[in-house]
Amino acid sequence: MGRTLYDKVWDDHVVDKQEDGTCLIYIDRHLVHEVTSPQAFEGLRNAGRKVRRPDCTLVTVDHNIPTTSRKTFKNVTTFIDEADSRTQCETLEQNVKEFNLTYFGMEDDRQGIVHVIGPEQGFTLPGCTVNCGDSHTSTHGAFGALAFGIGTSEVEHVLATQTLLQKKSKNMRVKVDGKVAPGVGSKDVVLHIIGVIGTAGGTGCVIEFAGSAFEDMSMEARMSVCNMSIEAGARAGMIAPDEVTFEYIRNRPLAPKGAEWDRAVEYWKSLRSDPDAKYDIDVTIDAADIAPTLTWGTSPQDVVPITGKTPDPSKQEDPARRLAMERALEYIGLEPNTPMEKVKIDKVFIGSCTNSRIEDLRHAAQIAKGRHVADWVYAMVVPGSGLIKKQAEREGLDKILKEAGFDWREAGCSMCLGMNPDQLSPGERCASTSNRNFEGRQGAGGRTHLVSPAMAAAAAVTGYFTDVRKLLPAEERTDITNTGSSEKHHDVELEPPVENHAKAADQADVVTDAPPASQSPAPSTAEASGMPEFTTLEGYAAPMDIANIDTDMIIPKQFLKTIKRTGLGSALFYNLRFDPATNKEKPEFVLNQEPYREAKILVCTGPNFGCGSSREHAPWAFNDFGIRSIIAPSFADIFFNNCFKNGMLPIALKQEEVDLLYGYAKKNEKLEVDLVNQVVKYPGGEIPFEVEEFRKHCLINGLDDIGLTMQKDKLIESFETKRTANWPWLNGKDYNGKATKITAVPVGNKKQKLDW
Length: 756
Ligand SMILES: CC(C)[C@H](C(=O)O)[C@@H](O)C(=O)O
Ligand code: SF4
Fold this sequence. Notes:
Its EC number is 4.2.1.33. Residues 512-531 are annotated as: Disordered. Residues 531-656 form the Aconitase A/isopropylmalate dehydratase small subunit swivel domain. GO terms for molecular function: 3-isopropylmalate dehydratase activity; 4 iron, 4 sulfur cluster binding; metal ion binding. Catalyzes the isomerization between 2-isopropylmalate and 3-isopropylmalate, via the formation of 2-isopropylmaleate. The chain is α/β, with parallel strands linked by helices. It folds into three domains: 5-287 and 712-730, 2-Layer Sandwich (Aconitase, domain 3), CATH 3.30.499; 292-499, Aconitase, domain 3; 529-705, Alpha-Beta Barrel (Aconitase, domain 4), CATH 3.20.19. Helices cover 29% and strands 15% of the residues. It contains 24 helices and 26 strands. The strands form six sheets. A seven-stranded mixed beta sheet has the order 23-22-21-20-24-25-26. It has a five-stranded parallel beta sheet with strand order 5-4-3-6-7, sandwiched between helices. The chain has a five-stranded parallel beta sheet with strand order 17-16-15-18-19. The protein is globular. Bound molecules: 3-isopropylmalic acid and iron/sulfur cluster.
């Protein structure tokens, strides 16, 4: 039978297969950043382990760093004001030194968002496996790589063994055929797809994006699509490598050269899915149905064409969906049936690993050219890397954008998640090119609408969400008959561009949700975790009825700055649990009520629990609070994995079973989770549940799987020998193309000479 692209890449990376189907797969490329690595390095240190393949590891800082001018930059210690952010960056630099890793620090033009710099350097290659302690690792799938986010325990596993334990996912294909219209970008395409399949649509799957719409896309556009496959719940997204891919990679500093290049291209071409390959799930979408698209609510699936209106919950038949809609509309501060083009904005953010590449900046500049940011709007542009910033400046894009009143910043994650000073203030509404519109994502109380870079620029200059097709140059403008598949077009008066008065760069630099001292975990020294055993667990179960609980909700960004695994219990569900104005408990929240303050189990009736970010801080927070088992109808993959790595048991049951347990939980009845016999007991009955054999074994015995994998060293070594023979370009190269390790960039060095 024919194989898919995913099958082929998977097969070429299996080091070992256990009886229950769990595989040990080899990881070719490991990207590391400051947020999800401190505890992993500490684990290595405590166990006396080394990084197995420094040549296949690339490190940078991106989440915590300010994006203000670096003219006065000397080092992270003097440059970063906020103590926890500074500690995280300093810790990373110490680890880089200690483990002798390649590092692009803030003084290096190659520094940038981790998912931007990997492809930019040619570190990401077709057919390779890529990991990072970050959910948007899916971005690299645009090259036909198998790339997915992992938690911190898995980061430690990859650092120590260059392998990962995985079960194979299902194959899903999303085919978009036809031509997208002018003004419709790849961001619109992926938002539309998520609107169709939902944020859990890809759960348990690797999505292959196929069809002429993707074939016609540049690599930048493909990266935006694969980037957001995690927002569709998928383990990874992939696009078959083709000439566009090869042209992008050719001559990148770390790309194969000479005869090795030809051999690599030949291999890469063989990775395309076979014509008779089978997919478990197949979705087909017509490109002609896609209009410029944006989100109206607080989940990436809450999408609407720009010509549409906010939905009306009263028309929703499904009560759970109605509740979710009402909650989202209330948070986002919009009435039902509001035309999106009538919605006024306060801020614009053009950046993030979704849309901060050169093509994105070109699209924004095309719309901004000769216009001006609306009087009441603050708009910022944050290039994805120092090299992109330089390229944009060579092309004069910075000039166009600055003249139009945009703030031109330095590379980093910036306002995508506001772990750094770039944040929204409560109630502010932002047109954002990022990927998550979760509650509080860009700052507590902030309201995020996801858009393409062109739509963001259009919103900036009119001050309202605006159909970008009206602002395209005349020759590209089309008749705006495409209103998307579900909504009717409506007319709106555009505000004339007006003079820009208040554009202070520091408008972005207001930290609105630093953790109060009492809730902040003390970030003194890092520590390694021991793996607690799990056999049975009896106790109160806290009932919740929210769908799509994301990990930003479980543990907001300001608590990710710790370099410890402990002390996060008080931050669990922080924004739901505490009033941001007073830091007082909200009595209506379940964990603030008796007996649930002592809950050991959580029963949530909503699906897709733990979606979004890969932050292992989410299970750490549950563990620290005392909750060690979560029962829900379905889970997001990374969160599910992360639980097991911390001695916790997530249990997926049928909706009616969860509803039954929820009823007992509400009545303050205790439940018992019996892992040995695989049943959840409630007064008068029990419900059996599934768990993978290997995971059960590790949980019951409190086994650390790094130690187990290290016993397979011989297998890993022989895989590495085969890898060198078959795919020599996968061994790290230095910047002269020599098959050694990548040149380590000593911390604090003078600016490196750039290779391209
Ligand atoms: C910090 C990291 C764990 C997180 C992720 O995994 O996505 C972040 O990048 C995000 O976008 O929320
Ligand atoms: S999603 Fe945002 S915070 Fe996460 S890696 Fe991308 S830019 Fe950084």
